Backbone:
């Protein structure tokens, strides 16, 4: 039994180290002096401006189209509303560094796990409560930041530009991935939020 | 411009503003149900097609400005409706009998109304509002009938649990002469609301072929 545990431990260690090594491949450890931008915050959400996206949400076999509205209502609080183009809103929540408040959620979507997943997605999307990354890696064009909170998250940025992707979980098979695409005027035109295991995806297009 | 003319113009503008404010502020009092239904019935029987531009304003308590979109709708008796947003996004929904087609600017999806109970309700509600038939749906809504000198105001209060959960009320302002809706306000449970303001109605104009297909 003891041997068995030892093998399992070694196996886990091997898997963990391979996971880390794979996302560092081609990258070297960076210091504050080698990169200019040391925060991993998503600056285009850090303003009082209301951000409105044309949104498509696929949840299992259901499809919802509407508008996702994001507004910073206080320095450490964001309001997030999903409303169909025709008709009343589907959900309305606020998130702060520690908690979420659900102001409204239609009954069919009012499931603890779903709301938790959406909250996590929005935290990864906004990266709104910036912190110093625990590790940074760099290659010729990209910087990768490993964050301590949210847990197990790596942010990839093009040097001196916006965020390219945010991944939670394993680098090559993330549980959640947010991809920021087609940057124009310091904001992405489209954003894709996808999940490895959960059948939930959100496609956002800037309006 | 001489001074007297300027004074006269100012007086005229002031009077016009006062008149507009007075009209807008005109309070609604209870209206006889039959009188309102008669006006709605008159439009319903003479209009085989109805078209209008609209401006939609979504008001949310945490936003200083509403979210604004614009578009148009086309209705043809008995159950065809094309509801299209053109600004700031392209999104069209067509109800044609039991079929629904949606185009989001990129692709079109079609399905049968029985496959999606939410859209079945939306279809029923929108057609009901446009045709004035929502007043008959006592199982779903209780209706208050009000009027002032220029318009009627109908307040639909949801009766079904699922609808009550989403909406507090639907208010509809109807032009007294035409019988057409000037504004529809959907008030949500937390008092956020959506206004749809209609303008430039066309009644019984010929519709281009393919209006109700996507």
Residues:
């Amino acid at each position: 039994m003891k041997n068995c545990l030892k093998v399992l431990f070694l196996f886990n260690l091997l898997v963990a180290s391979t996971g880390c090594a794979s996302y560092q491949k081609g990258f070297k450890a960076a210091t504050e002096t080698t990169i200019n931008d040391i925060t991993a915050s998503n600056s285009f959400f850090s303003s009082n401006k209301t951000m409105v996206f044309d949104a498509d949400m696929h949840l299992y076999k259901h499809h919802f189209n509407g508008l996702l509205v994001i507004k910073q209502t206080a320095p450490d609080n964001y309001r997030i509303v999903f409303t169909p183009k025709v008709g009343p809103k589907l959900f309305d929540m606020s998130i702060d560094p520690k908690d979420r408040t659900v102001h409204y959620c239609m009954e069919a979507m009012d499931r603890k796990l779903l709301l938790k997943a959406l909250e996590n997605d929005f935290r990864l999307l906004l990266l709104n409560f910036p912190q110093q990354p625990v590790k940074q890696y760099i290659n010729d064009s990209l910087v990768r930041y490993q964050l301590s909170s949210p847990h197990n998250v790596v942010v990839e940025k093009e040097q001196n530009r916006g965020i390219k992707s945010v991944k939670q979980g394993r680098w090559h098979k993330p549980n959640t991935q947010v991809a920021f695409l087609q940057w124009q005027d310091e904001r992405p035109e489209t954003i894709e939020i996808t999940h490895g295991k959960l059948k939930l995806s959100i496609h956002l297009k800037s309006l | 411009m001489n001074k007297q003319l300027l004074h006269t113009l100012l007086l005229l503008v002031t009077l016009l503003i006062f008149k507009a404010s007075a009209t807008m502020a005109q309070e609604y009092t209870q209206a006889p149900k039959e009188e309102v239904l008669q006006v709605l019935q008159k439009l319903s029987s003479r209009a085989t097609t109805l078209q209008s531009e609209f401006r939609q304003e979504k008001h949310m308590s945490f936003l200083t400005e509403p979210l604004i979109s614009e578009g148009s709708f086309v209705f043809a008796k008995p159950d065809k409706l094309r509801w299209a947003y053109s600004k700031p996004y392209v999104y069209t929904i067509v109800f044609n009998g039991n079929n629904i087609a949606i185009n989001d600017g990129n692709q079109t999806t079609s399905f049968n109304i029985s496959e999606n109970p939410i859209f079945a309700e939306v279809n029923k509600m929108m057609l009901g509002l446009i045709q004035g038939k929502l007043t008959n749906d006592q199982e779903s809504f209780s209706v208050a009938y009000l009027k002032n000198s220029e318009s009627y105001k109908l307040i639909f209060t949801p009766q079904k649990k699922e609808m009550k959960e989403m909406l507090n009320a639907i208010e509809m302002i109807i032009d007294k002469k035409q019988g057409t809706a000037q504004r529809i306000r959907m008030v949500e449970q937390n008092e956020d609301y959506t206004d749809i303001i209609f303008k430039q109605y066309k009644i019984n104009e010929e519709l281009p072929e393919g209006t109700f297909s996507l």
